[in-house]
Amino acid sequence: MSNSLYDQDYYLWIEDLLNKIQEKRWDEMDWDNLWEEIDDMGKSQKQRLTSNLRILLMHLLKWEFQPQKRSNSWKYTIIEHRRRILEQLEYSPSLKNYLNSNFEATYQKARKDASLETNLSLNTFPNQCPYTIDVVLDENWFLE
Question: Across residues 38-61, what is the average pLDDT?
């Protein structure tokens, strides 16, 4: 096992870095691990955004294509994941570009998820997303 503070006690490593930054002790910084952590933070933000969009799109598809099975649970999931996306975009507006560029790929995954979860044929769901990103994120829009 490594003797670095990063490997031994992550929280203490963070506190140590914060102290070094505050005291401007740049030559003592653990730059390699800090760079890795910051890079991972960015990836984590993108993954969280994509995950919430995927769940939202899957539930919109289920809502539209299985109206007889609609439930408050599905409705809550749609509202909640829409809210999570909007809050994340409010906090990090630059992620909107990432969301736009990955919208269709995320839809394709949501489409497969919806097919698996509903036992409906994949062909039941449109090949291209039937909703625009603006509609999907519109808190006042709901399929009825």
Answer: 96
Q: Does residue 142 lie within any of the structural domains?
A: no
The residue segments making up the domain with residue 12 are 5-137
State the total domains in the chain.
Answer: 1
In a domain, 85, yes or no: yes
Q: Is residue 62 part of a domain?
A: yes
- For residue 55, is it within any domain? yes
Predicted model pTM: 0.85
Tell me what pLDDT residue 2 has: 60
When pLDDT is averaged across residues 49-54 and rounded to a whole number, the result is 98
The DSSP secondary-structure symbol of 124 reads: G
Is residue 64 within 8 A of residue 143, CB to CB? The reply is yes
Q: What angle do CA 50, 135, 46 make, to 5 degrees?
A: 15
Q: Give CA torsion, residues 63, 69, 73, 78, to 10 deg.
A: 0
Tokens standing for 130?
């039937």
Question: pLDDT tens digits, residue range 91-117?
Answer: 999 999 999 999 999 999 999 999 999
